[in-house]
Amino acid sequence: MYISCRHVYYLDQPQTALQNQHMHEPWTRDQLLVVFNLYCKIQFSKTKANNSLVIEVAHQIGRSAASVAMKLGNFGSFDPALHAKGVKGLSGASRADRAIWDEFNQDWERLSIESELAAERFPGSMLTTPPERHVGDSHIYGHPVKVEDILSGPSETVREVKVRLHQRFFREAVLASYGSSCCFCSNPVPQLLTAAHIVPWADREDLRANPRNGLCLCSLHHDAFDSGLWAIDDTYQIKLSSALMAYLPSKILEVSFVDFSRAQIRMPDKFWPEREFLAFHRSNLFRE
Ligand SMILES: [Zn+2]
Questions:
Q1: Ligand 1 centroid from CA 36, angstroms
Q2: Is 43 in the same domain as 154?
Q3: Half-sphere exposure of 198 (CA within 13 A, CB side)
Q4: For residue 185, how far is its CA from the centre of ligand 1 (angstroms)?
Q5: Of 175, 191, 218, which closes a domain?
Q6: Residue 126: what pLDDT?
Q7: Do 116 and 62 fall into the same domain?
Q8: Do residues 94 and 44 make contact, with C-beta atoms less than 8 angstroms apart?
Q9: Is residue 1, in this structure, part of any structural domain at all?
Q10: Are residues 183 and 167 part of one domain?
Q11: Of the candidates 115, 144, 175, which is a domain's last residue?
Q12: Ligand 1 center from residue 44 Cα (angstroms)
């Protein structure tokens, strides 16, 4: 059995020799990938140097918590959703930060996998727990897994690993962006929350890991969305389907759906849903 080592580090702890050694070195690609992975999986309001996850990731990659928090702020400075909320982020972003941001936003399919694998290369990473889902283990392949193996490999095992990495990244990024509650009804029960694809999984492989193609929904509202019983318009308002309204009057439908009609969904703190994807859902799945 794999036993996870979890430690809590505090800011007043002395810096380790590893951290001191790396303080002034340029950031490696793996370090940037891991911090962008963290950016995706943490609410922006929690990207502070005293957040326990920030501290743990900083320790794992040999950087200070303050420098990881600064990188998270740099990524935030590129995020249009944060701009729209009046959050400016930090202004000291480097070209390397911008390059990673652009790479992710142009190719979520590849970068989600690459960043998940980078996180797994740092031992004891909390970003990829629970450990039973640690898919980069060498016993699967007999050699370290490379992103190219996963993106181009034809075997069933490789396809399965790709799906699991996409699912893990997508779910964690979407739930974090929506503060872990249903964007339709605000249900906060973790066991009932899912990351729903706006453009269905089967329709666009390139959008499977893109958090802007995601909504955090409870099981009921996820099933109803996939069945076209409601949709989201261009102003992010909830539209109910005539197919659903045909069942009225019904007390349970009134409480679960009608009370939310024309309300705006609860917007995520980053990765706003793309209007283009919402339009695809209205055209192809919504039962007007
Ligand atoms: Zn719900």
A1: 29
A2: yes
A3: 26
A4: 4
A5: 175
A6: 59
A7: yes
A8: no
A9: no
A10: no
A11: 175
A12: 23
Q: How far is the CA of 87 from the centre of ligand 1 (A)?
A: 27
Domain tally, the chain? 2
What would the two tokens of residue 57 be? 């990731």
Tell me: do 105 and 133 sit in the same domain: yes
In the reported structure, the alpha carbon of residue 133 is separated from the centroid of ligand 1 by a whole-number distance in angstroms of 27
Q: pTM value?
A: 0.84
Centre of ligand 1 to C-alpha 167, Å, is: 20
Chain-centroid distance, C-alpha 34: 13
> What is the 261 CA–ligand 1 centroid distance (Å)?
13
Give the other-Cβ count within 10 Å of 113's Cβ.
Answer: 25
Residue type, 206: D
pLDDT (tens digit, 9 = 90+) per residue, 44-80? 889 999 999 999 999 999 999 999 999 999 998 888 8
Cα torsion 267, 101, 281, 203 to 10°: value is -150
CA of 221 relative to ligand 1 center, distance in Å: 5
